[in-house]
């Protein structure tokens, strides 16, 4: 994840203000997708067939690294608009604040993943069994949160960050 977001931050720093117009449009597109997908989840709709088949991965250090990089790349599609807006906001106050913003974001994201991984690992099957019995409820709550997230992104597209994102 650090490699993917570091690359994204470097690309953002390199492109600078040129990337702003595309970021603003990403907010609207991703936000709209989140609202639709979240609404379907709240309604308890699921596709009848698996849309994506996960490939078998090598059980080696390079295999785990490649899987993690692909996973982070896929996750970046959801979080990139916010991440890039934070980086550009920091860069507008200077390169040191831009780098500090990127580092803070990376530490926060990696810390959450590490905590959830450790809790799942230490709790083992008891946490997994408890969560499994509440899967339907968790799925619908996640859908509601996705709708809220999408609505926030659409709001920011139209009303937010006027000094950073072009309208």
Strand segment count: 0
Q: What is the ordering of alpha helices and beta strands?
A: HHHHH
Low-confidence stretches: none
Number of domains: 1
Spatial separation of the terminal alpha carbons: 30 Å
Q: Tell me the major beta sheet.
A: none
Overall helicity = over 70%
Radius of gyration: 18 Å
Overall pLDDT level: 77
- What coarse outline follows from CA principal-axis ratios? globular
The chain-level structural class is mainly alpha
Tally of separate helices: 5
Beta-strand percentage? under 5%
Oligomeric form: single chain
Descriptors for this entry?
mainly alpha; 5 helices; globular
Structure in words:
By secondary structure, this protein is mostly helical. It has one domain (2-47, 56-158). 79% of the residues lie in helices and 0% in strands. It has five helices and no strands. It is globular, with a radius of gyration of 18 Å. It starts with a helix and ends in a 9-residue tail after the last helix. The relative contact order is 0.20. The mean pLDDT is 77.
Write the topology of this structure:
Elements: H1 2-15, H2 20-42, H3 61-92, H4 95-133, H5 135-158
Helix pairs in contact: 1-3, 1-4, 2-3, 2-5, 3-4
Give a short summary of the structure.
The protein is mainly alpha-helical.
């Amino acid at each position: 994840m650090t490699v993917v977001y570091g690359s994204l931050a470097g690309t953002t720093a390199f492109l600078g203000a040129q990337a702003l117009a595309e970021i603003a449009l990403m907010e609207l597109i991703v936000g709209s997708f989140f609202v639709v997908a979240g609404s379907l989840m709240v309604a308890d709709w699921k596709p009848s067939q698996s849309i994506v088949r996960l490939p078998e991965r090598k059980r080696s250090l390079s295999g785990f690294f490649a899987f993690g990089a692909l996973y982070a790349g896929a996750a970046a599609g959801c979080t990139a608009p916010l991440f890039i807006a934070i980086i550009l906001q920091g860069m507008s106050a200077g390169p040191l604040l831009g780098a500090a913003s990127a580092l803070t974001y990376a530490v926060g994201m990696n810390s959450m993943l590490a905590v959830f991984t450790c809790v799942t690992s230490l709790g083992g099957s008891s946490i997994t069994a408890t969560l499994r019995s509440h899967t339907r409820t968790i799925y619908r709550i996640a859908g509601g949160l996705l709708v809220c997230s999408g609505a926030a992104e659409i709001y920011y597209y139209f009303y937010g960050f006027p000094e950073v994102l072009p309208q």
